[in-house]
Amino acid sequence: MPISDSMRRLETQWKSNRGWPKRVEWLEISGLRGWSGQPIRFDFPLVAISGENGAGKSTILQAIAAIYKTQEETIKNLYATQFFPDSPWDKIKDAIIKYQLREGEGQHKSGTLRKRTDRWRELPSRRDRHVLYLDLKRIQALTSRPGYRRIAKALNTEAQRREMSKEIVDRLSTVCGRTYDGAALALSNVDNNRWVPVASYRGQQYSGFHHGAGELALIEVLSTPMPKYCMILIDEFETSLHPRAQRRLLRELAEICRKLELQIVLTTHSPYVLEELPPEGRMYVMNQGDSKTVVTGVSPSFALTQMDDEPHPELDIYVEDVSAKILLEEIIVATKRDLIRRCAIVPFGTANVGYALGQMISENRFLRPTLVYLDADQKPGNGCQILPGDDAPERVVFNGLKLFRWDGVANRISRAPSETIDALDYAMTRTDHHDWVADAADRLVVGNSELWRALCSIWVAKCAARSDLEAVVQIVEDRIESRGKTISSSLTTSINVTVESNSEQTPPTPSPPTPTTPPSTPASTSGRNKSLFPDLD
Fold first, then answer.
1. Beta strands 315-319; 343-347: pairing state
2. Do the Cβ atoms of 492 and 31 come closer than 8 Å?
3. Share in percent of the chain as helix, strand, coil (round to 5)
């Protein structure tokens, strides 16, 4: 689905290369919760990190929080010791957090946090920044929080009220899908520390004691002060929010991110959140045995498939997008129809994800038989196959069928031949081939997938070389029979690439250089941001 207007505006401003003078550019974590120095790049100001439980998503947020300090009195400093403590069962040693920050136009600052044995040492002079760490999964109903039950008594009275701004109330109304008259945070006469949210809807006032967990989570996020250039870290973003509210909240955060030039990093298991972001804003952490792989640009369907526990067919095939998926399905159906039932074909997103997955195949790191197909306009990669043709699927299919004057397409989609030819010819005048199918489908009043499948089916029958189709099917059969073992070298490529998160559709580039270590300073005592609600402190 297309991204929202708020996300599009954020993307446009980001790509103008103006603004965001303070940001984390990349991070490397070693010796903590299974991380071993994998590069983690942040190529968009609003990034969602997905992955299975225990993959290391929260560790990334906590490492980011630990590399900054604040001199503001309103929030406490965050330290590595509070996020990564020693315990009777855990002893952290030889842990390293390397990072590179942007501190002004053209200024890049590298640093390292290190714990060799008993404490975090060699702590550099951390850069100042307002950092908000919001762990939404810890938000509870007010009646379940310590100290709140004694407030919820009819004889108590309100002692103080802090009205929320109209902007916050409007955002809350937009996300919740109801128009609030107003909202505030209030203190009772029996407790001057525990704030209670109070909202007014259709003239009726009700407090946080009658709010759902989702409303409390929204108030926690939207009412928290966010100074310009600050870092926002949100764990378990979708907690207690239905899909529509997830989308709306992310769109509101995109607007705030653009206006205040914030950097926002969040963790999620929700495909609805990933759908709202451009590819460079989607990150997936894959936990394969003792190793981790970080890829940027994954599709929501890829992330959902990776986190799903339902039974799957005998072979997982990953392709770049839905266009490639339909083309591959038509190739298999036309050549060996029964084989399609044994395969699950899933779009993965941008090409760099495919290179990362291909590298994992070459290292035999998948537990199930797996194939990766790149479009024919991509360079070969280790462990990757290439779809038939010499260009992107749309160009291959459209150019091939145009030579046959689109013979058979009109009958397949039940449209007049002249109308079909005109629509398809006109679509090819568009500069971006990704727009061709949608343009023609709009003119012919048919579904995009319906038209594209018809084109692919006819292209397979009329244009494709039989040997190319049979080669694809042979690779699929061999991979199923291999049971996850490496296919014969004659069926795979031999070009080595280094796996790295990168939003460019080219083979991944090497990991960032190791930063120089600034002079160390001793670690401080642990602390935490002051939340609006004490149970989050």
1. parallel
2. no
3. 35, 25, 40
